């Protein structure tokens, strides 16, 4: 008499729903037995992108690149595709077809002829770069199975349609299904996939919020249409830090990486005019020099003097003006039109630039230039005190590397250590003391 088979264990979830246990197709492995070579990062050929990725792209990962229309997402990814295709094959290429430097660029918004024209203009043509104009997810899977590329770029995820799913391309259900399908493809084949995503007018990634949870990394490519500067910020990264920033410039021949971007935000004049002060801000994990310029124009005839701010926090500049008037004795700034801006289209919002803003305004009000090769950073309180800021040593090292010799800093425990990294350190407890040492008394 045959013995009856033991029924599989079941678990009830919710009302009336029962889930049975199934035998796994592959057993769970101790972490020490998993081969780490299957997730070795591979360089994209663009150092600034590798920086934001955390050292390179991980096989089988899915990266979502979001940005406003016209910011240069497609141009950047075409550059990535060409650089990837031109790099030499790794040693594993002979053993695995997907390890070769073959790129499949799926364009669902343009024809292959249009992409070819842009590739000629930006010099991004490579023999192992393949183009396909497809908007059907199943056909895209077929291209991947036929070509076995080592990198897939889909431009864009909101224009691809998954068969059998209700809704139009770009809708919630379609976008979710397309992203889930491409993510499953990446995990099954080990091929990294980069998706282009559009953003809404509020700056968020278009589509359901689950879209950002499905992918491994979310990067935002941003820039001002009036400036060639482009910044690549990491919003989510399962394989790296989320405080890295990549810098690029948009030119007539494409997107160019800028490994040392501090020079973009400084005036080209050798002589520092009055109303100008250099500061060191930290964007993500990266110290950048920025120039703050101020213009103070006489006694305003208007009941409310004009306050024009560009590239800085609109709420902090009026506060600094009030502190200068009430605590530093600069009564004239309260009745004058004041214009404050950064150079090069840079946007600085951290409080560490307060001291530079205050010194630039004071310099403009006194018609006296600050000393040459000087940087200043520190947060200003309502009592006129200068408060410490994070990463002070890193800021000073960056200033010294670029040839600056004097630093005006707040009084902190790191002040003595800071003196060993630059020629001269001026420690100021209050904005009044800083102005007095640099520009003389009122």
Automatic annotation (TrEMBL):
<keyword id="KW-0067">ATP-binding</keyword>
<keyword id="KW-0863">Zinc-finger</keyword>
<feature type="binding site">
    <location>
        <begin position="67"/>
        <end position="74"/>
    </location>
    <ligand>
        <name>ATP</name>
    </ligand>
</feature>
<comment type="function">
    <text>DNA-dependent ATPase involved in processing of recombination intermediates, plays a role in repairing DNA breaks. Stimulates the branch migration of RecA-mediated strand transfer reactions, allowing the 3' invading strand to extend heteroduplex DNA faster. Binds ssDNA in the presence of ADP but not other nucleotides, has ATPase activity that is stimulated by ssDNA and various branched DNA structures, but inhibited by SSB. Does not have RecA's homology-searching function.</text>
</comment>
<protein>
    <recommendedName>
        <fullName>DNA repair protein RadA</fullName>
    </recommendedName>
</protein>
<feature type="short sequence motif" description="RadA KNRFG motif">
    <location>
        <begin position="236"/>
        <end position="240"/>
    </location>
</feature>
<keyword id="KW-0479">Metal-binding</keyword>
<dbReference type="GO" id="GO:0000725">
    <property type="term" value="P:recombinational repair"/>
</dbReference>
<keyword id="KW-0862">Zinc</keyword>
<dbReference type="InterPro" id="IPR020568">
    <property type="entry name" value="Ribosomal_Su5_D2-typ_SF"/>
</dbReference>
<comment type="function">
    <text>Plays a role in repairing double-strand DNA breaks, probably involving stabilizing or processing branched DNA or blocked replication forks.</text>
</comment>
<feature type="domain" description="RecA family profile 1">
    <location>
        <begin position="38"/>
        <end position="199"/>
    </location>
</feature>
<keyword id="KW-0238">DNA-binding</keyword>
<keyword id="KW-0378">Hydrolase</keyword>
<dbReference type="InterPro" id="IPR020588">
    <property type="entry name" value="RecA_ATP-bd"/>
</dbReference>
<keyword id="KW-0346">Stress response</keyword>
<dbReference type="GO" id="GO:0003684">
    <property type="term" value="F:damaged DNA binding"/>
</dbReference>
<dbReference type="InterPro" id="IPR014721">
    <property type="entry name" value="Ribsml_uS5_D2-typ_fold_subgr"/>
</dbReference>
<dbReference type="InterPro" id="IPR003593">
    <property type="entry name" value="AAA+_ATPase"/>
</dbReference>
<dbReference type="GO" id="GO:0016787">
    <property type="term" value="F:hydrolase activity"/>
</dbReference>
<dbReference type="GO" id="GO:0140664">
    <property type="term" value="F:ATP-dependent DNA damage sensor activity"/>
</dbReference>
<feature type="region of interest" description="Lon-protease-like">
    <location>
        <begin position="337"/>
        <end position="442"/>
    </location>
</feature>
<comment type="similarity">
    <text>Belongs to the RecA family. RadA subfamily.</text>
</comment>
<dbReference type="Pfam" id="PF13481">
    <property type="entry name" value="AAA_25"/>
</dbReference>
<dbReference type="InterPro" id="IPR027417">
    <property type="entry name" value="P-loop_NTPase"/>
</dbReference>
<dbReference type="Pfam" id="PF13541">
    <property type="entry name" value="ChlI"/>
</dbReference>
<dbReference type="GO" id="GO:0008270">
    <property type="term" value="F:zinc ion binding"/>
</dbReference>
<keyword id="KW-0227">DNA damage</keyword>
<dbReference type="GO" id="GO:0005524">
    <property type="term" value="F:ATP binding"/>
</dbReference>
<keyword id="KW-0234">DNA repair</keyword>
<keyword id="KW-0547">Nucleotide-binding</keyword>
<dbReference type="InterPro" id="IPR004504">
    <property type="entry name" value="DNA_repair_RadA"/>
</dbReference>
<dbReference type="GO" id="GO:0005829">
    <property type="term" value="C:cytosol"/>
</dbReference>
